[in-house]
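Components:
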Amino acid sequence: MTTAALVTDAATVARRNLIKIKRVPDLLVFTTLQPIMFVLLFGYVFGSLAPQDPQGYREFMMAGIFAQTIIFGATITGSGMAEDMQKGVIDRFRTLPMHPGSVLAGRTVSDLMNNVIVLVVMSLTGLVIGWRIREGVLHAAVAFGLMLLFAYAFSWVMAFVGLKVRAPEIVNNAAFIVIFPLTFVANTFVPAENMPAVLKTIAGWNPVSTITHAARENFGNLFALPGRPGQSQAARLSEIEYTWALRHAEIYTLGWIVLLLAIFVPLSTAAYKKAVAR
Amino acid sequence: MEVPLSVVLAKIVCVSEAVRAEGLVKHYKEVKAIDGVSLSVPEGTVLGVLGPNGAGKTTTVRVLTTLIAPDAGRATVAGHDVVKEPDAVRSLIGVSGQYAAVDEYLTGYENLEMIGRLYHLKAAQAKARARELLAEFRLDDAADRPAKTYSGGMRRRLDLAGALVARPPVIFLDEPTTGLDPRSRGDMWEVIAGLVREGTSLLLTTQYLEEADRLADNIVVVDRGLVIAEGTADQLKDQVGGARLAVTVADTARLGEARGLLESIGSGASEVDEHTRTVTVPVSGGTESLLAAVRRLDEHQITVQDIGIRRPTLDDAFLSLTGHKAEETTEDDPAQDREREAQNA
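Structure:
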C-alpha cells in the first residue's frame, strides 16, 4: 500500500469523523463550554489569591488551561477508537482494501482539528478576560504548535488504550483518573517551585509543565506573582526554571513528542491490525 | 505464446473456486472456536454455513475475510491466500456482518460514498454508485437521513449495500437476517436471491434452515467448531433417512389392508396413525414407489384421500446430525430471544 493511499484513506476517515461533530453539535458545545468555564472559574477564583495582581495570574494561568484542555481533548481518540470497535465499524474498515495506518491517521488528525477549534474558542475567551500575546505572533504560533503537536502524539497513546480496552466509558474514566493528576502536579495552575519537595520534582520533569512553560515563554506570561522588591528578572526566572527540563522546555517537550510517537505509532498500528470486535 | 500446462491448470483451479478453506483452526484460551473447518465455494455458487450460535460460523468468516489469522490450516479467496495476501483478498470481497456496521452519524448516502472512496473508486464513481445502491435497496427516501434514524431492517440493507459498493466477485454475509422481523427477512432474501442470479459467489452463514434451504446451492453444517455434514439441501435431507410415502385412506376399515400393500412396496417398517387414517412407510424409489402404490391400492379398490412423498425437512436433518435443534443456543442471547418473539408474533 502506497503513501498516497495512506493520505487519501486517512482524509476519508477524518472527514467521516468530522461529520460526526457536525451531526452531534452537543459534543462540540460541551468540549468548548468546559474550557470557557475553566478559564472564567480559575481566572477569577484562583486569581483572587494574588490580590496585588490578579491580572498577572490570569495571564499566567491561560497556558496551563490550554495544556490541560488539549490533553483531555486528545483522550477522545481513545473513546472514538473503542466506540468504532464496539460498533463493528473497525471490522468493516479492516475488510476494505485500505492502507492499514489510515484509520488511526484519520482519527488522530480529526481529533487534532477538534483541538484546534477548542484552542481558538479558549484563546478568544482568554482575550476577553485580559490575556495577551506579548511576544509577537510568531512566538505565539510556536506555543500553539508545540501544544498541538504534544496533543497529537498523546492521541496515539490514547488510540492504543482505546483499541486494547474496547469500552468507551472505561477509556474515559481511566483517562480522567490518570490525566487529572498529571495535569495538576505541574505548573499549570500554580507556580510549581513552592510545592512540597516530591511534588516539586515530579512537576519539574512533568512534560505538562514543560509544554506550559514553553508556551508561557512564547506568549510572554511567565510569572504568576509579582517579583519581590529588588529581585532581578534573571533571579525570578531561575526560580521557576528549577530543572533542566524547565530550562530547556521546548527541546524537552519535543523529545517527549518524538518518544511518544516512536513508541505508540507502531504499537497502535499493530493493535489495529489485530483488532476485532468482541 | 506458449504457456506451461501447469500454469493453465493452476489458473483453472484458482478461478473455479471462489473460496477454499482447509482445516482452519482457531482456539481462544479455553474455547475451540473452530477446530478444523474445511469448505469450498465454487465460483458463482452460494454456500450456506449452517449452525447454531457458537458453532464457529463467525470465526470462520473472520478468518476468510482477513480479520483474524487462523492458528492452523489455510484459506484462499479467488486464489489469494488470506494470511499472505490480505490486500489482494480485501479488494475482491464484500462483507456484511452479523450486526450492521454502519456509521450511525453518517447518512445512508455518506456511508456508501465513504466505502466507495475506501475501495479507491473515483469520487464521481463513488457518488454515483452510492445513489444507485440506495435506489436498488429502496433506501432512496432515507438516503440523506443519518443512519441513526433507520429501522433494523434498513440498517441491514444499508450494511449489505456497503458490501456491494465495489461489485466484488466474492461476498460474505454473516447471519444477514438474524434479529430481523419476518417481513424484513423476506426483503433481505429477495435482495440476496437477486445477487445470486447475477452470478456472485456467496458465502452465507445462518442459523435458519429455511434460509439455507432457499438461498444456498450447497450447505455445510457446523457444530462446535467442526463441519459435521455437507451437501445440497436434498442430500442432507436424504442423509436423515430419505423419503417417506404417506397415504391417507378414506375408510378406517381398510387401513390394515392398505398397510400390508404399502409395506410390500416400502423399504422398512410402516407407521399407522388411526386418527388421521394415514400409513407412512419409508421408500427408496421416489416417484416409482408412488406410482406402484397408486396402482396397488387401485387394484384393491381402496379409496385414497391423499397420497404423497414426504421429504424430511432440514430441521429433521439438523436434529439427527447434531442431536439438538438448530436454533437452540448454548448461551443466553437477547437478540435471539427478540428474534423468536418476532417469529412467533
